[in-house]
């Protein structure tokens, strides 16, 4: 989760694609060049330990685009494949 957040921060599309499950990965991934990620808070992590095949991470990530500011609150699902964790999908949580 943290490596994917960092990839968004630095614009590393290659890492995002490589860590996204091929069954749910979009054909094209274009990042907003104006959007800046400014913080990450892990709210809850479930499973995802050394013996787990699946895990869920709930997080809040703050961003800004010019004078606009916001927060992405998501519950992300991951699966372990080929010795690494792959992002499957996420449910955006609205207040």
Notes on the structure:
This protein is an alpha+beta fold. The chain has a single domain (2-92), classed as Nuclear Transport Factor 2, Chain: A (Roll). The chain is built from 2 helices and 4 strands; from the N terminus they run ααββββ. It has helices at residues 2-10, 13-18, and strands at 36-47, 54-65, 68-81, 84-92. A 4-stranded antiparallel beta sheet has the order 1-2-3-4, with helices on one face. This is Preprotein translocase. InterPro entries: NTF2-like_dom_sf, YchJ-like_M. It comes from Microbacterium salsuginis.
Q: Which keywords apply here?
A:
single chain, 95 residues, alpha+beta, Nuclear Transport Factor 2, Chain: A, globular, Preprotein translocase, NTF2-like_dom_sf, YchJ-like_M
What is the arithmetic mean of pLDDT? 95
Outline the low-pLDDT stretches. Answer: none
Helix/sheet category: alpha+beta
What's the order of the H and E elements? HHEEEE
N-to-C CA distance? 22 Å
Number of domains: 1
> What is the overall silhouette?
globular
In what order do the strands lie side by side in the largest sheet?
Answer: 1-2-3-4
Q: CATH class, please?
A: Alpha Beta
Helix content: 10-25%
Number of strands: 4
- What is the helix tally? 2
Strand content: over 45%
The gyration radius over C-alpha positions equals: 14 Å
Largest sheet: 4 strands, antiparallel
The CATH topology name reads Nuclear Transport Factor 2, Chain: A
């Amino acid at each position: 989760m943290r490596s994917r957040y960092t990839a968004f921060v630095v614009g590393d599309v290659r890492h995002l694609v490589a860590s996204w499950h091929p069954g749910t990965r979009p054909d094209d991934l274009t990042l907003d060049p104006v959007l800046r990620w400014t913080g990450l808070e892990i709210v809850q992590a479930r499973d995802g330990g050394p013996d787990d095949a699946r895990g869920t991470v709930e997080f809040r990530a703050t961003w800004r685009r010019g004078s606009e500011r916001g927060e992405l609150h998501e519950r992300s699902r991951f699966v372990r494949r080929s010795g690494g964790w792959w992002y499957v999908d996420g449910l955006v949580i609205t207040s």
